[in-house]
Prior knowledge:
Layout: E1 7-13, E2 19-34, E3 41-57, E4 63-69, E5 78-87, E6 92-101
Antiparallel strand pairs: 1-4, 2-3, 2-5, 5-6
Amino acid sequence: MLPSVRALSVSIRMVAYAHVTLTLQVLGRRTVLVGKGKHRRRMVRVVVLYAATMRGTTGRQGRLTGRLPITYRPARPVQATLSVTVRGKDSLATAHMSVLLKPHR
């Protein structure tokens, strides 16, 4: 659970000179009408309400420290997904985690 912060501090340890991509996404649902006449029906679509990305490269020691600014201001607490992708010379690693963004006060 994240308190009402303006930036997410990130510290990663990986292999040297790996390319790192962090993505924070808030997803929502939108109801749309599809079809015509008697065949008209409602469908729920998933839409991205907010996305923030940070890219960087680990140094010689394999460390990356940075801040991912969060400019999204939710009215109530919302779930967000933080995805971390690391590309090394011959490898690829991805991790997803769920975080809770609280409203600013």
